[in-house]
Amino acid sequence: MKEGPDIARIASLVGDPARANMLTALMDGGALTASELALEAGVSLPTASSHLAKLMDGKLLTVASQGRHRYYALSGTEVANMIEAISGVAAHSGPKRARPGPRDKSMREARVCYDHLAGDHAVAMFDRFVAEEIIVRDDEEIRLGPVGAGFFATIGIDTSTLGNSRRPMCRACLDWSVRRSHLAGSLGTAILDKILAEKWARRPAGSRVVEFTPPGRKAFEKLFLA
Amino acid sequence: MKEGPDIARIASLVGDPARANMLTALMDGGALTASELALEAGVSLPTASSHLAKLMDGKLLTVASQGRHRYYALSGTEVANMIEAISGVAAHSGPKRARPGPRDKSMREARVCYDHLAGDHAVAMFDRFVAEEIIVRDDEEIRLGPVGAGFFATIGIDTSTLGNSRRPMCRACLDWSVRRSHLAGSLGTAILDKILAEKWARRPAGSRVVEFTPPGRKAFEKLFLA
DNA sequence: TCCATGGTTCGATGGTAGTCGAAGCATTCT
DNA sequence: AGAATGCTTCGACTACCATCGAACCATGGA
């Protein structure tokens, strides 16, 4: 009967799966483009655009136009707190989270996260990069480490050309199946590109799964998990 | 694409206006019956029952069967925190809350909250009861004060018969238009009954508004707001 | 034992909101 | 300028779910 703030309105905004996916994708505080969010949410671009308009209308998101890109981000910590609180309840509620992650084993092992690799392999690779000081992480920020440029040069990735774009070369992306970070950004894209170019793995159509071939996996491990 | 806890599922539970009303009605930590919640939400009993089943399924509510009543309550502080967090965002988002409360002036002044009086008059009455030690509040608990039984006896309410039922005689109910407590429980019901029996006020059909007659208002003020 | 009251289930209805294809703007690169 | 990319708008379709009346169960009281 009390009708305080219109709680139902904004709860219903979060209540749609597509929008919820978008919001959680932005929970790291980063900004993503509409197309990236469309992929994250698993919907078409028009649909995503509609959802984004609704989220903007509810003031849950802010947008920054940069050239022909529109970068969407959470509008503030209050929104993040809310998502966090909802997640807490959901964790206690939902179907027993005995298996935290996707039902699909291969998805958990290796999948593509828009344009870079995610899953166990990606997290292991990220850890090794940090251990070897190929990349260094300063709190939230991630940069190429002292031996980084050299390392990537040896495997045919020219890091000097990756810094040009407005897009950050290195970005941390929280892996939902492992709950740890993996590498995104243009460098992450370059690595995924190489994996596919070398035919170490292929992507079954209509899925995010990345299927390594047996020799491909060996080569990948030798190169990135040495 | 991270698919952590099923946040959309429980957000959509809160996203329905009827359910949101129910949840906010329970935000004081109390327990209400299905019919009370139906009135709070402004829906029919079958509809309310369906919503309650869904909220139970999502583990947002607990239920305690007492006789033929079923008392629903929030399942824990985590749920309350979530509602609180959502309210915070909603306050920043929604249509300017210049007028915190109902658009209807008469509603804000006096209305019925299921079976007791709410609104400005009810809050003023509650304050006076506390000031005069007619009732005393111990934190969350409310009891009849030292002069309480005598006071109510003089106006024709026998408090000794009100304690029999399982229902608490005194209960605090948070008034949404003033954001302060008013009196619920069987004593609150008795007072409302008296007001209507004395014809100090009447209830237009199909509304929660309580319309005092001019002499009725005088009598009410003399008796309860002296 | 029978009635009254509080709740839930069932079935049918209607409205609303999510979805995508196609077309339309805007910006940037060649 | 022309082409390509990123994004939004429009229109039509669909599916889901909130809603309520009526019937059905359960408990408590006479």
TrEMBL record, chains A, B:
One Pfam short name: HTH_20
Origin: domain of life: Bacteria
This protein's record includes keyword DNA-binding: yes
One of the record's GO molecular function terms: DNA-binding transcription factor activity
Keywords, in A-Z order: DNA-binding
InterPro entries: ArsR-like_HTH, HTH_ArsR_DNA-bd_dom, HTH_Metal-responsive_Reg, WH-like_DNA-bd_sf, WH_DNA-bd_sf
Gene Ontology biological process terms in this record: response to cadmium ion; response to lead ion
The HTH arsR-type domain, residue ranges: 1-94
PANTHER family: TRANSCRIPTIONAL REGULATOR-RELATED, TRANSCRIPTIONAL REGULATORY PROTEIN
Protein name: DNA-binding transcriptional ArsR family regulator
